[in-house]
Amino acid sequence: MSNTNVLTLIGALLAGYFLLALPLGGTFLAAFGPAVKIIAILTVLVFGAVLIYKGLKEILRK
Predict the structure, then answer these.
(1) CA spacing 20 to 30 A to 53: which of 38, 44, 46, 62?
(2) What is the Rg, in whole angstroms, of the alpha carbon atoms belonging to the chain?
(3) Where does the sequence pass through the membrane (predicted)?
């Protein structure tokens, strides 16, 4: 597994986390708040699961 791939996955995981913590109140995006929260939660879950899967696959291969 290349380091670039892992760094991309970690970057996506962090982006989902920061999207989750993003305050949208008082902006024109406030109406999309619930949808943004759902997208952020799914992003964190999916990329976290992929990182765990790739890590376990790498450990068990050796």
Answers:
(1) 38
(2) 15
(3) 31-53
